[in-house]
Amino acid sequence: MNASGDEFALIRRLCAGLRHSRRVLVGPGDDCALVDVAGAKQLVTIDSLVEGVHFELEWFTPAELGARALAVNLSDIAAMGGQPTACVIALALRENLPPRFAEELYVGIRRAAKRAQIDIVGGNITSASELSVTVAMFGLAPNGVLLRSAGRQGYDIFVTGTLGDAALGWRILAGQVLAEGSARDFLVNRYLSPSPRIEAGRKLSKLEPSAAAIDLSDGLAGDLKHILRASRVGAEIDAALIPLSPAYRAVAGSDLKYALTGGDDYELLFCLPPHYSAASLSRRLGVAVTRIGRLIGKSSKLVIKNLPSGLSAEALRGWDHLRRES
Fold this sequence. Notes:
By secondary structure, this protein is of the alpha+beta class. The chain has 2 domains: about 5-140, CATH 3.30.1330.10; about 150-305, Alpha-Beta Complex (Phosphoribosyl-aminoimidazole Synthetase, Chain A, domain 2), CATH 3.90.650.10. Helices cover about 30% and strands about 25% of the residues. It contains 10 helices and 12 strands. It has helices at about 5-15, 60-80, 100-115, 165-175, 180-190, 200-205, 220-230, 245-250, 255-260, 280-285, and strands at about 25, 35, 40-50, 85-95, 120-125, 130-140, 155-160, 210-215, 235-240, 270, 290-295, 300-305. The strands form 2 sheets. Strands 1-2-3-6-4-5 form a 6-stranded mixed β-sheet. Helix 2 runs parallel beside helix 3 and helix 5 (about 180-190) crosses helix 8 (about 245-250). It is globular.
């Protein structure tokens, strides 16, 4: 274990002494900060991809890596219901990279930026012992923001898409899980090329009352606990309701470990009053939505029904960058 302890305990310690002016509308603790800039609600987020921690270079083309670096930040904007606008990019480049690596990386970054209709407005380059790509992303929140603290007892818990695919894809590339054929291709692609739910997040932000939301970057169990802590509620989910792709079932069968703790899905997890159905939300948001449980009590405790033997809700955690494990 890293001497600094777990990632989120360290974040809480680092943020404990911070003081903010009135222009800071939302500080540390959500997917983005929200700052009042001359009356406009500005979203700000930052994330890094580090070789040996988040990826191995042989898994990606440089263009794929560049596109992925943008996607993980776009997902944070989506989780707040925002519209991404611009980014700056910091590259730390090690020795012995392939020829024209940086130029090809930027091919993927430019393509992803064009798809998301955002501008690349600056950045920084330095040398380092390990390759890393850091993106700071900016956005606007014209419809109000989605906060982790908006959950209320009795709200239903929903997710978009299917869960666990990217976690399996990562393990296939790492040689930890065996797969072949179309199932392997699907799962690996879900890891290499995530699709941030920007449009779904924007549509979600228009619903009333406001949803509690987070993007699923560190795993369902870990990320849901962030909502529970921020909203001061507990949750009961049904493991049998977790949406799994046919490829996931073909490779992992009934093993839900990857869907519960794996991370890298970049789907949306959100909570709304029970008069919203999964079917109506699927139509409204333009993406498959599944109800997996509800918010209960005030204990921040997570209860998981129909959990396969060998797994316990208390022991399940999401990805921790300091421990480098889930």
